[in-house]
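dude i think i finally got it to work??
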Amino acid sequence: MILALVSVLGGCASLQGVLVPVGGTIAGASQVDMLVATTRKRADPAEMFSGARGPTLAFANITVSIPPPSARQIGEVQWPRQVPGNPATDFVTLKADVIDRSQALAWFHRTLRTAPKRQVLVFIHGFNNRFDDAVFRFAQIVHDSNAPVVPILFTWPSRGSVLAY
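look at this
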């Protein structure tokens, strides 16, 4: 019984460091480059932004690699089983740069010019999400919808628990 309890609780623990960029991706993988605006506090590179409130609005430019269609189920985020993740089978981060407001605006204007209809998709994640969960879920939505949009993620403080706001 103790062994069963330990394995259930171990399965609830989230893998740390999934947003640390990997060295590259593979042929057939897709990439989603997004702008992130957040009210979260800066954290170590493994977490990037914590669930605590930050003093001001912060920005990041993140690129997520999504495995080839033959290696994933549409509509699902394929979390790495270990860090670093495997771009052949997992969602992995290729770039995760904290940027300032002027860099965010430059990214936005540059990317908007490449969008066919100059449309933007802003995703505000749901209640009770961690930062890494919001990043990977939005990358999955943008990729799987095949929408020709400028992807912008807005995240707000949470530590991934109902009681942790």
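The chain has a mean pLDDT of 88.
im so relieved honestly
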